Amino acid sequence: MTSVESAHFDSTERRSELRDLASAFRELRASGRGHLEVNLPDSLYPYLTLSFLGDHAVIHLFTSEDSVSLLVGDGSVSPEEQVDVPVMDELGTFTGDFVMRVDRAWDVMENFVRTGTVEGLGEWYEL
What we know:
By secondary structure, the protein is α+β, with helices and mostly antiparallel strands. The chain is about 20% helix and about 35% strand. The chain has two helices and eight strands, in the order H-E-E-E-E-E-E-E-H-E. Strands 1, 2, 3, 4, 7 and 8 form a six-stranded antiparallel sheet that branches. The chain has a two-stranded antiparallel sheet with strand order 5-6. A hairpin with a 7-residue loop joins strand 1 and strand 2.
């Protein structure tokens, strides 16, 4: 997760309850940018990443070491537009096809943590 103090990605793995994750996300959101990674207890895969800058967010799904997908966006950005979001400590550029509002992205992450599945979260585009 991006550190609020340093604004750099901290790869230290932590276990937390959803309420603690939500609190950390709210702090990041107040800073205007961030990247976080979430997996389920005792399981490396699947895991999701949420990267955001301002009101724009992108979600990656990793189902194995060799498999990554992007969640199709919510239409808040036109497909021909490009949006930058922090992916770890670098800015990644994504077309509007994969961009969504930050609130939508957080709903996806919260749903994943509560249900333990990526089914029903939206349409995934495998890279």
